[in-house]
From TrEMBL:
The keyword RNA-binding does not apply. Substrate binds at residues 7-12, 72, 154-157, 177, 182-183. Its EC number is 3.6.1.66. It catalyses: ITP + H2O = IMP + diphosphate + H(+); XTP + H2O = XMP + diphosphate + H(+); dITP + H2O = dIMP + diphosphate + H(+). This is dITP/XTP pyrophosphatase. It comes from Streptomyces griseus subsp. griseus (strain JCM 4626 / CBS 651.72 / NBRC 13350 / KCC S-0626 / ISP 5235). It holds the Pfam family Ham1p_like. One of its GO terms (cellular component) is cytosol. Keywords: Hydrolase, Magnesium, Metal-binding, Nucleotide metabolism, Nucleotide-binding.
Length: 199
C-alpha cells in the first residue's frame, strides 16, 4: 500500500523515511516529486497545521491515495515567533537555506545568549481522498548560536542548539536529531493514526 509524502523538500523526505521506518510503518512511501504534474498548493494558511492540511489534501485528492504532509519552521522568541510559517522563504527566495539562515543571523546581530531562545515546530497532517483529516504537532526548544556549526540536516539546523545539548542540530547524527526533533515527535504521533485510517 502506498502513502504519499506531500513534500518536495529533500531534507524532510530523508528524515521522514527514517522516522516512519523506525516507527515500523510498512507502507510504500512516495514523494511528491513522483507526481510532477500536480501543481504545488498555495500555502495560504496562517498556522503550520493549516498549511500541512492544505498540502496533504491537495496530494490526496489529486492522487486518490492517502497523503501525509509536513509544515514546519523556526520560531524565534525576540522576533515574536518569526520566521515561523515563512521560514522556507525568509530571505525572499524559497528554499535558499543558506540565505535564509544568514539573514536571520544578521537580524539577531549580537543579541546575548539569554535572549536567543527559539524553537522548531512541525505540524504533521494526514489526509485521505474522501476528505478525512488528522493533524498533530511537535516542537523542539533551543537557543540560536551566533555562527553556524555542523553539516548534517538542512535549513536552520546549523544554528539551533537544542535545550540540554552542547551541539547544534547539524552536529547531531540524523538518528540523534530524529529522536528529539519536532518532526520526529509529530510523525511518531501520527503513525498510529496512519495505521488506523490508511494502513
Ligand atoms: P514542502 O512545502 O514541499 O514540504 P518547504 O521547504 O517549502 O517544503 P515548509 O514551508 O514547511 O516546507 O518550510 C519549512 C522550512 O523551515 C524549511 O525550509 C527550513 O528552512 C525550516 N525547517 C523546518 N524543519 C527544519 C529542520 O528540521 N531543521 C532545520 N530547518 C527546518
Amino acid at each position: 500500500k502506498r502513502l504519499i509524502l506531500a513534500t518536495r523538500n529533500a531534507g524532510k523526505i530523508t528524515e521522514l523515511h527514517a522516522i516512519l521506518a523506525d516507527a515500523g510503518l510498512d507502507l510504500d512511501l512516495v514523494g511528491a516529486d513522483a507526481y510532477p504534474d500536480i501543481p504545488d498548493v498555495k500555502e495560504t494558511g496562517v498556522t503550520f497545521a493549516e498549511n500541512a492540511l492544505l498540502k496533504a489534501h491537495a496530494l490526496a485528492r489529486a492522487t486518490g491515495l492517502p497523503a501525509v504532509a509536513d509544515d514546519s519552521g523556526l520560531c524565534v522568541d525576540v522576533l515574536g515567533g518569526a520566521p515561523g510559517i515563512f521560514s522556507a522563504r525568509w530571505s525572499g527566495t524559497h528554499g535558499d537555506d543558506e540565505a535564509n539562515l544568514n539573514l536571520l543571523l544578521a537580524q539577531l546581530g549580537d543579541i546575548a545568549d539569554e535572549h536567543r531562545g527559539a524553537y522548531f515546530a512541525c505540524a504533521a497532517a494526514l489526509a485521505l481522498p474522501d476528505g478525512t483529516e488528522r493533524v498533530v504537532e511537535g516542537r523542539l526548544n533551543g537557543v540560536l548560536r551566533h555562527t553556524p556549526s555542523g553539516t548534517n540536516g538542512f535549513g536552520y539546523d546549523p544554528i539551533l542548539q537544542p535545550e540540554g545539548e552542547t551541539r547544534t542540530c547539524a552536529e547531531l547524527t540524523p538518528a540523534e536529531k530524529n529522536a528529539i526533533s519536532h518532526r520526529g515527535q509529530a510523525f511518531r504521533a501520527l503513525v498510529p493514526v496512519v495505521r488506523e485510517l490508511a494502513g
